[in-house]
Amino acid sequence: MNENNAMKHTPTPHIDAKPGDIAESILLPGDPLRAKFIAENFLENVTQFNKTRGMLGYTGYFKGKRISVMGTGMGCPSIGIYSYELIHYYGVKNLIRIGTAGSMQPQVKLRDVIIAIGSCTETNYLATYQLPGDYSCTASYKLLRQAVQCAEEMDLPYHVGNILCTDAFYKPDLPKTGVSWADMGVLACEMESTALYANAAYGKANALCILTISDSPFEEEEISAEGRQNSFTRMMELALSII
């Protein structure tokens, strides 16, 4: 879609922004209040570009770089809508999901950071593309490489590998059959990466998921909802540093 055609679609039904209101690089937390937290605590000269459906979006500057941040909601259908519109109607080139995930490996501890190479999936989102086979959803190597370098410099406890994207937060306790995702080395589970990686690939944009472990079946500690919203600042700093 060329620029003139894209402008005809803005504002969109979901994003009340004009062309130019959103930076080419954006952070995408699921929780809109986390977007608000980032805008208030990390960005300067902030303007709000969206509040439609309560999905807060802001643009500002981080160390001189123009960056946007907006919530996406939960699940592939929600982030699928927002990432598609950001790429095709607002010209966003770099999209970094920052969110939480549940550990699937004992060595992946609470508050560890996951830099997701690929998104294994249980969702049906990819069916919308009518591909002739199974598509491997992967991150932008450019963003992934920068994230690993920055994580090293920041001395963060991090892991690089595959994650699982699922539609169901709560699942019935069924008997195990066959090989599990954990058996295949999948590090953690979340709910948005497949749609983001697929939309970015189709839209010729860069995408990466950076996640903080908020839940683990291998540890007794739990992190509160408020803690999830406000405390994962190291992950936020990492994401801001690479775009």
Automatic annotation (TrEMBL):
<feature type="binding site" description="in other chain">
    <location>
        <position position="30"/>
    </location>
    <ligand>
        <name>phosphate</name>
    </ligand>
</feature>
<dbReference type="InterPro" id="IPR035994">
    <property type="entry name" value="Nucleoside_phosphorylase_sf"/>
</dbReference>
<dbReference type="InterPro" id="IPR004402">
    <property type="entry name" value="DeoD-type"/>
</dbReference>
<keyword id="KW-0328">Glycosyltransferase</keyword>
<dbReference type="InterPro" id="IPR018016">
    <property type="entry name" value="Nucleoside_phosphorylase_CS"/>
</dbReference>
<feature type="binding site" description="in other chain">
    <location>
        <begin position="97"/>
        <end position="100"/>
    </location>
    <ligand>
        <name>phosphate</name>
    </ligand>
</feature>
<feature type="domain" description="Nucleoside phosphorylase">
    <location>
        <begin position="26"/>
        <end position="233"/>
    </location>
</feature>
<keyword id="KW-0808">Transferase</keyword>
<comment type="similarity">
    <text>Belongs to the PNP/UDP phosphorylase family.</text>
</comment>
<feature type="binding site">
    <location>
        <position position="14"/>
    </location>
    <ligand>
        <name>a purine D-ribonucleoside</name>
    </ligand>
</feature>
<comment type="function">
    <text>Catalyzes the reversible phosphorolytic breakdown of the N-glycosidic bond in the beta-(deoxy)ribonucleoside molecules, with the formation of the corresponding free purine bases and pentose-1-phosphate.</text>
</comment>
<feature type="site" description="Important for catalytic activity">
    <location>
        <position position="228"/>
    </location>
</feature>
<feature type="binding site">
    <location>
        <position position="53"/>
    </location>
    <ligand>
        <name>phosphate</name>
    </ligand>
</feature>
<feature type="binding site" description="in other chain">
    <location>
        <begin position="214"/>
        <end position="215"/>
    </location>
    <ligand>
        <name>a purine D-ribonucleoside</name>
    </ligand>
</feature>
<comment type="subunit">
    <text>Homohexamer; trimer of homodimers.</text>
</comment>
<feature type="active site" description="Proton donor">
    <location>
        <position position="215"/>
    </location>
</feature>
<feature type="binding site" description="in other chain">
    <location>
        <position position="34"/>
    </location>
    <ligand>
        <name>phosphate</name>
    </ligand>
</feature>
<protein>
    <recommendedName>
        <fullName>Purine nucleoside phosphorylase DeoD-type</fullName>
        <ecNumber>2.4.2.1</ecNumber>
    </recommendedName>
</protein>
<feature type="binding site" description="in other chain">
    <location>
        <begin position="190"/>
        <end position="192"/>
    </location>
    <ligand>
        <name>a purine D-ribonucleoside</name>
    </ligand>
</feature>
<dbReference type="Pfam" id="PF01048">
    <property type="entry name" value="PNP_UDP_1"/>
</dbReference>
<dbReference type="InterPro" id="IPR000845">
    <property type="entry name" value="Nucleoside_phosphorylase_d"/>
</dbReference>
